[in-house]
Amino acid sequence: MTDEFLWWRDGIIYQIYPRSFMDANDDGIGDLKGIISRLDYLEDIGIDAIWLSPIFPSPDVDFGYDVANYKDIDPKFGTMEDFEQLIAEAKHRKIHIILDLVLNHTSDQHPWFIESKKSTDNPYHDWYLWQDPKPNGDPPNNWQSIFGGPAWEYDPDLRQYYYHMFYKEQPDLNWRNPDVRHEMLDVFHFWLDKGVAGFRLDVFNAYFKDPEFRDNPSKFGIRAFDRQEHIYDVSQPEMMPLLKNIREILDQYDQTYVVGETFMADTEQTANYCGDDKLHAAFNFKFAENRWHPKRFLNSLTEWYQSLSGYAWPNNFLSNHDMTRTASRYCFGEDDRRAKVAAAMLLTVKGTPFIYYGEELGMRDIPIRKRSDVKDPVGKTYWPNFKGRDGCRAPMQWNDKEYSGFSETEPWLPVHSNFVERNVKTQTADPESILNFVKTIIRIRKNEPALQRGDFTPIITDPRHLLAFTRGFGTEKILVVLNFSSRELTYQLPDGTWVSLFDNQTTENELLKINPYQVHILKLKD
Ligand code: NOJ
Fold it and tell me: 258 with 247: CB under 8 angstroms?
């Protein structure tokens, strides 16, 4: 790999949930023109790529993760011209666009599924996973949907069941059908030809299921879905040659990137999907799922690096559209100190950082109080044990005006009540804000190849309170010390003269004082 700057390895990827980022036409839902209008903001923060959650036509049962046409833009987000403008304007700012491809399943409103349901001899019937009932009328096997209930839905007209890992409105495609495979691979070409730089693949390791549809073995668990070992409904070996085909397509275009969302895979399995003839990267959930403890973060990083070593460059994330936001998980009230430490960690450890929109502001999840307020069907199904994913999908907080500058109309989800103080405008003006802190770290990172592509060596001194490590690149060495605790600590600097990259102050052979939740980034002077 090149020693020069490589956007997907050395840069920062920013995830936008388009419904909630910026609403330019004031219908309460974010759109592409809204994103275009905020590209200057993203350029100013210093991000290198945008991952857009799905923007394809969708009936929105799962808010875009149920696609009704893979080669068009949903009118609520704009037009193909808007998308082309987004690509062009982003490119102008050296920002790459990554699309979210949901190829495991379609919407039940996709014309292929509508055809597929018409008769068992329809040419599209075999594009989905239809099976006859058991002799007693039961579903073909014991597979469950992760969104609740059996994974099989009966169609009384066809007298067959179809399979859906997610909602019944999201039927799974039959990837063993060569026509499906051909059509899907063409989707990659279609968008690459439009100038996108890469893709995030939704639950890619679920594409193939056991061809014999065997029952999953049982295990202990609370929900029916968790009471099974998922050995037959995900992670089948056929995925590996398919990834090779996908990568061959990507490699026909310059500097492209594909990152996969692994579904129910551990770190080792996740790493196995990455490599020169597979995915560039996959998401390691273990890092994001850590409790607030430096040793835990370090352990999951070390495991990630070891599993990947030699195969692929790591990536790291702490938040996305499916989980409680970083600041809501780790901070107390509106105190941002832990969110700052988390951001500094994400931006300085080895691996491409993924920032979820609003994470740079320390945005918190909105509270979900009533079942009738819930938009995410998973929240309705599992209420009150799980309130769904609306919390982390609320409108971006741009300013202190009504609806936080996101829209002039009431948005599809409420804005967090903290928006009056917590917003881009206020934080830009406040030198102590988390936004300015994140921008500073990104600026430091941009100036230092060691923080981008350097190696990573942990330094274990006080593992209950400190995460300390060096990043080395050629002769350059950078030391990062993160205080995860509310205590004032000291840290014996290694030999040499160290310059703080925050204020250029020089320190030599000293006992470094570290304030509660303080972040030090120092460079060895040659
Ligand atoms: C994973 C996506 O991240 C999630 O939002 C979605 O509901 C499921 N896949 C189904 O597509």
Answer: yes
